[in-house]
Amino acid sequence: MAPYTHNGVVQNAAVEAILHFSDETTSNAAFDHYWQRLSTSPSDQIDLGALRICVQLLPSRKDVLPYEELRNYIVTRIPVASNSAELQYLLAEICLSNTQLGSRVFTTLVQSITQNTSFESGKHDALEESRGRDIVAQLNFIKASFWIPPAQQHYLTVHLLHTIVKCVGIDGLDKCAHNALSALLSLLSNRSVVSIDQEGMDITPASASSNLLQQRPFLNNSLFARFEELAPEYFTENAGPAFRTWFQWITYTMEKGSQLDAVYSSFYWATLRTGLVTGFADQRKYCLGILQQSLLLPKKNIDTIIMQMDVSKRAEYISQYDRFSTLFEILVLDRYANQVLACLPELSALLGPDTVISPNWTTALLSAALSSKIQDGIRKLVGNWYLGYIAGGYGSVEAYLDFFVEGFLPWATQGNLFNSTLSSTRAITNCTHGEALANAVSRLVVSMATTAKSKEAFRRILEYVLDTGGNIFSPSVPYLLEGLIHGLKLRPLRLETRELKLTLRISRLSSLPEVTADLLTFYCAELTNYVDAIVLREHEMQGYKSLSTRYNVLEHTSPTGTQDHLAHSLATDEERSLKGFIERLHVSKHKIIQNEAFGPACGELLSIFERTTPEALPSEELLEVLDALWEEADRLEYPRPIALNIPPVFFHTACIRACVLSPPDESNSKALVVLLQKVLRRMQQFSEGRSYLLPVLGSSIRKACLSNPCIVIILPIEDFLVQFINNPPLPKKEFLFEVIAAQKLESRFPHRDYASYYGQREWYGYAAIIDLLLRFPKFQTSPAGRVLDRILKPWRTQTPPILAISKWKNVLQLQAMLLLTESCISEEGVDEYLDGLMEALVVEQWPRYRFLLEWIITRIYYHFPKKAEHILTKLAKLNENSPVQVASLMKLALLAAPFLDSEDFALRLMIQLIPFSASPKVQIRHEAHWSTPTIFGLAKERGWLSITENPAFQALDKHIRGLEKFITPPLTIRTMKLDAVKDFTLTNIFQGQYLRLETPELERVAYEDFESIYAEDRACLSGLEIPPARVPLGDPISRTEAQSSNVEPKNEIAIDEITTESNSTFFQTKSGFDIASLLPSQGPPSAQQKRPASVVLVASLIDNPTNIGGLSRISESFGLEALYIDDLKKTAHKDFKATSVTSEKHFPIRELKVPAIPDFLISMKRNGYEIMGIEQTDRSGMLGEESGGKGVGTLPKKCVLVLGSERGGITSEVLAVIDRCVEIKTVGVTRSLNVQTAGGIAVYEWWREWGGKE
């Protein structure tokens, strides 16, 4: 059942007309009748018709009882109306239509709210549920009364205002209170408001041009007094309504020229700053509006911690804070990267010496821009700019210490910033963000005005690290300490007890990687050097002795656990044997291999293996020892010192010989093989996540295979090689910080370098495994062939569409194939390999992959030159519908021609190049242009007269050489010259120029790595017959050239790009708000929900979702009532969403099928709309022109705009019901406009004609 009834509008109007002419007796009887109906109606219903009549009859009553009865009725029915804003509005309108009744009702409500609510200062008061519901209903009723038009009566008293204000901050009432205040402030913004006083007297006649509320201030400081009673958290958690009320309050005060004492208080500005920093978009807009309006209020100077203002320079303050607001809008609200970049010079000026902006507001802007609510790209731009600003010393940072610690460091210590600026070359590994952060910390300490301030900065940074509770990117901590140390060197301070305690706490941070922890120890020890010696002597600080001990260990010893260190230390012990080792293992119950003893035990075993003959190392004893070691390693979960010592022991030649020479059916031999197979698989798995294991694993496997080639088929070497080639291990980013830490430690302790912790770098392991691919003995080429087949298979079985970059593809796969084709392809299988590689080449898109595939195929032709004839045969058969294959064959023929040394081959190729040089297919034509001069030059070099003396060839060669692209060719992989024979060296394969062009490839291995392998062979494997390498090493490539591929990341804003000069150009702003737009709409719900433009757009004839999406965006942006389309499913189409930019979520889009359009337009006519067609007809008026040759072109205030389809326009059936048509005047050759464009122009023209008009 409906909660209220009207009993018919026509019937009520008739009753009211009759009663107007009735005498007093009749009126009283009528009142009694309708009151009886009201009083007996159900308590959950409101009879608005009867109530309205009773209220109209009240003036004829002499006694007060009817007023009391109606007051009680209305007050008790207010909760009934709580679920309908429209009903609340109607009830309030009836109530206030009688002055005395309205006064009685509102006085009762104020008393009720006051009596039933606790107003204790500083608390978010809570109400019991039933009382809370009643007060919420009463506040909503009061709010609805403020929607009544200003020319009608309102109850407005200071007591009512204070009552509403006191509800602010109370749980359950806060939102309602702010909504009521917002409605009140919207009402007061009108020039004239009719009000009644507490005695029910109308103090402002409706005919008055202005009333008492406008003649004396109605608002005061009560809102801000209430705000000061609330907890600070109130303004940081969903405080948008509070700041909306604040904005409206300050706007009203400013418009009335009133004085507001709150603007002189620190609380006012501190709270406003909090809202600006912590809020979401709408709240921040209100805060900016408050800031701008507040600058207009002061009559005297403001001097608070947060805000200072000299009113004699008000214009300058307003100008600069307007600029501040614009920057805030760009950086925090709009967040477009190009706009942010453009405004950074202005940001520098904001921090400059000529600014009047308080540092607290500057830091509010920076804090908001660096908060987690902003996307990472914008935060990075602003953060890197600030790093550069500090490093450049462009201004004092003393006033920004709080921001640096609380706003900047949380952003600056994020892991992604460090990871994204890591660069690693063979010479050095570096993190530019970490270095910049250390520099900024140093500048902060140095630039403080006083020693006390510098110590405070020192303490605050250490406290920040400790306050994170370990939730900080661990590599950032050494950079912070490094900055502090550098700052102390530039500005020496004598640290005291407080600073020492913090330093010692930092030194005990846990969960740090090994080398980083050692670097932290070093840095903390360095910081204690600045502590006053008296402090160190007089105070036994907890942890200082431990720190000193750890520092002494760093200074005088090398890291334990690396294999080289252990082997050296135990190699001279000649009296130990494997049997004796096992005995001690039993006696000690495995303690001689547990924990820290594991490494020395491995060193001892290596010493035993080296000096013991194979016969003295039976497989059962080896198995027992190795099995014990593996169990211990598994128990300890393979930490660094353990994992580094496993491969040299388990894959030592002694263990390998035992596997090879022992009878295959012996149980111990089988178990030993199974163990080594498991160890190999597990260690390879570990090496993919711990790249430091690759050198020791790769070199151990290589030595094992070279010393006993049969092990290749006993251990899963084939799987090992395929897995390595398909998933080459790379250092993880977190490990590269260990490399950096080792570099920094080495600068102070030379014995603490990377090798002392982890041994060789990963590229040494690459060299060892790659060299193994080159040295498979002839009787072991089958495993090598299987490796080649397994790598090639996914390349040859690709199916289009082929992605340019795929996760499973890598350059090492093709490099390995290039090496393996030297030994793994026989005469019988060559055709199959050529077909498979050509299949891969034809579909491959990535230039670097194509380059290597062409090189592989050419090398096969080099070994099987007779097969090269197939190139020209296939080229002659192909037509230009296969441009990729034609271009590939031309390139292969070009690469093969030098080593084939055949004039006939070159002549036939040149003949085919002539038509290809004029091909309409760009790929074919370009390849022919590059090939022709090269073949012609080869012919000159070899003296092939059939080519060089041919006039056609001469003319074509001359023409192509004269082309700009040939004179100054671009340096790309496709244009790079390759000699498939002379360039076939390891250095060219793994360090060639093709790896550095276009998108640079990571250099995995280099000339010096192979040299290191060969030097170790000469030293340690001199007595072993090692198969020769099938690929020459080649000449070294200069390190400068080789390192050009390692592009170091840099901060987006370089230090030398920082400028403090203000930019006078315009800045784009996209958030699109002004002061007026922040004011909420006013009036009853029906008025608030009304769209700004009385225009309906009908687009049902349009099919294209892109055009419909654009029209949705136009319709919502210009405030149209609704958009009609033929199928609502189109709003889910991706093309619709691409142009609508979510506009469909903010206004009504309705479905209107094409056959129903005429009937719909006729119904709209009945509702007062004029139907306008945007169409070119013989009677169309020119849009915007009041008169013309064919008709009127202006648009009516209330209209329906009909758009035609993209091709056919408006159908004749629809044209028949259209009132008028207009067309858009153009002056160009093109006859028509896109339908989106036409719709946008028409809607804009409506706003030009009617915008702002009543």
- Tell me the number of strands: 15
Counted by DSSP, the helix tally is 61
Quaternary status: single chain
Strand line-up in the sheet with most strands: 11-10-9-14-12-15-13
Structural class category: mainly alpha
> Which radius of gyration do the C-alpha atoms yield?
43 Å
Helix content: 55-70%
CATH topology of the domain at 787-1016: Serine Threonine Protein Phosphatase 5, Tetratricopeptide repeat
Bulk shape? globular
Give the uncertain stretches in residue-range form.
6-11, 120-125, 198-216, 563-575, 1044-1056
Q: Give the name of the CATH architecture of the domain at 787-1016.
A: Alpha Horseshoe
Distance between the termini: 39 Å
Mean pLDDT: 86
CATH C-level label of the domain at 787-1016: Mainly Alpha
Strand content: under 5%
Q: How would you characterize the largest beta sheet?
A: 7 strands, parallel
Q: What's this entry about, in short?
A:
GO terms for molecular function: RNA binding; tRNA (guanine) methyltransferase activity. It comes from Byssothecium circinans. With 1254 residues, the protein is mainly alpha-helical.
